[in-house]
Design goal:
- The protein contains 9 helices and 5 strands; from the N terminus they run E-H-E-H-E-H-E-H-E-H-H-H-H-H.
- Strands 2-1-3-4-5 form a 5-stranded parallel β-sheet, with helices on both faces.
- It folds into 2 domains: 6-122, Rossmann fold (3-Layer(aba) Sandwich); 129-196, 434 Repressor (Amino-terminal Domain) (Orthogonal Bundle), CATH 1.10.260.40.
- The chain has helices at residues 14-25, 40-46, 63-73, 88-96, 109-122, 129-147, 152-159, 163-170, 178-188, and strands spanning 6-10, 30-34, 51-55, 78-83, 101-104.
- Helix 4 (88-96) links the parallel strand 4 (78-83) and strand 5.
- The model has no long low-confidence stretch (mean pLDDT 87).
- By secondary structure, it is of the alpha/beta class.
């Protein structure tokens, strides 16, 4: 999971930690859990995380106090708080500490996954650059081909590549070699760099 978003779940309830690890792990996230909030700062000094998910009601250190301590060492990390006891006061306190989202327990796991995805996007955390590059190349190749009113078969004839491979490149299902991209660019009458868009 080298490219997976790293998420740290902090909740004194070990069952919630286990549930979150299973549910978010199955979505491709790299999940670490801590049920003792006093260990969080040391873990943050040892390891990078993209998102922290913190329960507000914990016995040793309450969530707001923990977030205040975290903000002293990391002002940018995305933090999502969740609580079974939401209140206007804790929501305001959380927002003052630049918390990315405030979630009420119990919550729907699908909407929580979306919350994490949205928070990662808002923070500008891009973990799948290679996939985005393939999609960009595919979209540009398809757009240029359509602008020139060419079929896949016609581009295949110009490039010596199979229509099947060209289709896979356009749909970002296949990683094209530099040689194939050069042939496509030449066949479409553009410079190779045009296929990379803003990358």
């Amino acid at each position: 999971m080298a490219n997976a978003a790293k998420i740290l779940i902090v909740d004194d309830d070990k069952d919630i930690c286990a549930y979150m690890q299973t549910m978010l792990g199955s979505s491709g996230y790299d999940v670490t859990t801590i049920s003792n909030p006093s260990l969080v700062l040391d873990r943050l000094r040892e390891q990078e995380f993209h998102v922290l998910v913190i329960d507000l009601m914990m016995p040793e250190i309450d969530g707001i106090e923990l977030i205040q301590r975290i903000r002293r060492i990391d002002t940018d990390i995305a933090i999502i708080v969740f609580t079974g006891y939401p209140s206007v006061e804790t929501a305001i306190d959380a927002l003052k500490l630049d918390v990315s989202d405030y979630v009420k327990k119990p919550f729907d796991i699908d909407s929580f996954r979306k919350t994490i995805s949205d928070v990662l996007k808002r923070k500008g955390i891009v973990l799948d650059m290679e996939e985005r590059l393939h999609q960009t190349i595919g979209q540009i190749v398809r757009r240029l081909r359509k602008e020139k009113s060419l079929t896949l078969k016609q581009v295949a004839r110009r490039t010596g590549l199979s229509p099947s491979l060209l289709s896979q490149i356009e749909r970002a299902e296949s990683s094209a070699s530099v040689s194939s991209l050069y042939k496509i660019a030449h066949g479409l009458g553009v410079k190779l760099t045009v296929l990379f868009g803003d990358f």
